[in-house]
Amino acid sequence: MHYAPSPVMSRVTGQRHVGGPIHAVNSTAISALSYSGRRRELSVWFHSNPHLEYIYVNVPLFIVGAIFRSASKGKALNRHIIDKVEFTRRDHAAQRA
């Protein structure tokens, strides 16, 4: 049997999400992060477009830990994820329409 978690409404982003808990972060670029260890997916929401969820796949937990511990989440994301990890985008604004 395949388990598919049901979407829940996030208090942080106001969007439906099926991954792990969503954490607001102190960053000028990133508004929130979420990690699903079972799926190895890192979801990122940026202040510039809060309705877009960027879902990075096959992200190891130690990389996620490095991002969460970093003083600059944006720099850490650029260093470890951007242009190195495949991603998809989910437009939550389009889902509401």
Order of helices and strands: EEEEEEHHEH
The oligomeric state of the chains shown is single chain
- Shape, please? globular
Unreliable runs, pLDDT <50, ≥5 residues? 1-9
Report the count of strand segments. 7
Provide the β-strand percentage band.
35-45%
In this structure, how is the largest beta sheet organized?
Answer: 5 strands, antiparallel
Helix content: 10-25%
Q: Name the structural class.
A: alpha+beta
Question: What does this molecule look like?
Answer:
By secondary structure, this protein is of the alpha+beta class. 23% of the residues lie in helices and 35% in strands. The protein has three helices and seven strands. The strands form two sheets. A five-stranded antiparallel β-sheet has the order 3-4-5-6-7. A hairpin with a 5-residue loop joins strand 3 and strand 4. Mean pLDDT is 83; it is low at 1-9.
Keywords, separated by commas or semicolons:
disordered N terminus; alpha+beta; five-stranded antiparallel sheet
